[in-house]
Amino acid sequence: MKWSGSEAARKITQTTTSRAIQGITIFLVVVGTITIAGDLYFLSNIRKSLKKHHTKTFVSTVSTHDSTSLHNRTVVANLLREAGAMVTDESKLPTLAQIADLYGPRPVILGLEHCEHFRNTVPASERMLGAAGMFSTGTNLVTHLLKRNCYIPERAEKYGLETATKEQLGMRWQVPWGKHTPADYKIKHATEKAQLINKDYILPCVTIRSPWRWMQSMCKNPYTARWPHASICPHLVVNSSQLSRQWNPVTVKYGAGIENYTSLVHLWIEWYDQYARLVLDDEVVENHATSYPVLIIRMEDLIFYTQETVTQICQCTGGVIYAEKPFEYVVESAKKDSPGHDTSVGLTEAWIKYSKPLQPRAGFVQEDYLAGIDALNHDDRFGLMKLLQYHHPPSN
Ligand SMILES: *[C@@H]1O[C@H](CO)[C@@H](O)[C@H](O)[C@H]1NC(C)=O
Ligand SMILES: *[C@@H]1O[C@H](CO)[C@@H](O)[C@H](O)[C@H]1NC(C)=O
Ligand SMILES: *[C@@H]1O[C@H](CO)[C@@H](O)[C@H](O)[C@H]1NC(C)=O
């Protein structure tokens, strides 16, 4: 079987172009799906909820769901409530149209074209999913969602669906080489607990987030990244003169070692480059000795298009979503059990926070803004901003 990364990239580009036409249709299907999940969440009587499910599917179709719903905050409030979240002030909520404007009308997942290869080469009863991702990109969130909703049926057969641990059902907290550890360490390093795991049997689920919002978050909590930014953040450049621009290097301490990066924005670019090339660089992809399948998942999709995103990840490994219980969202903060992380937010707060358009220059000084755009446009060879449908903040 031939993998073609640039083919995948082209496909995504084409899809983006035609999204104006398909967008609303698909969006409504997604909304329908979320609605159904929400219903299921609340109703213990499955039969009753299935009845409602059919009704909802019908009312969510394009012919009956007029465009005013896309601008109706009550529709969003109902989606959140049906997912189990609390909504106190509807007026603060975004509309579905606003969300689609920022992130597109449906999830963007890179690497789905390699799922078949993964399923063909890894025995079903050995397959695993594990989170990876830079700090503050939703690695905990994706793990919670997968553990609550997805399992590998062959593993369930082997260990018993009721009695098995989530790990035995194929859902791991992180990839064995450490979730924040760069992809290149896969060969070199495994977290102590996971020494015995066959690293080729795990599909990394790599979360990513808009680099601008990610930098804002890193300014609040830098985790183990260190760089001088006492009075100004992200402080990408120490000399912004066009002719002799000097970046402000960042050092990150991983469990497995220390790495240096050109600047904070380059940490995002270079860290994701190592995973992206496993999906997008034809030469790397075709070298089966060193490449391995991964999925790259937008954190924003885990928030806004939760069920569809989780289902696609799950099915990639041949996993299934629990049929006998409703889809479970993470309504509470995904990080409340791990102290020391940055301010975490619940589902409603996340919908409000991530649907706000970026402030001018993302709130950064002009030098950081221009240097950030420059780096993202020129130093990221895969153009992840575009592929993932992220936008730069406005200049003013
Ligand atoms: C908005 O949606 C709610 C819930 O579906 C509906 O009751 C309400 O009439 C809608 N408002 C408008 C202006 O369409
Ligand atoms: C920045 O670079 C320019 C051009 O080389 C130089 O004239 C200037 O002194 C530098 N500024 C700082 C703060 O180093
Ligand atoms: C990273 O930078 C630190 C401090 O500048 C230096 O001591 C270290 O050798 C560098 N590490 C690598 C791998 O380049």
Automatic annotation (TrEMBL):
- Presence of the UniProt keyword Membrane in the record: yes
Locate the transmembrane regions by residue number: 20-43
InterPro entries this protein is in? P-loop_NTPase
> By its UniProt entry, which SUPFAM superfamilies does this protein fall under?
P-loop containing nucleoside triphosphate hydrolases
| Keywords noted in UniProt | Membrane, Transmembrane, Transmembrane helix
**Protein name, entry field:** Uncharacterized protein
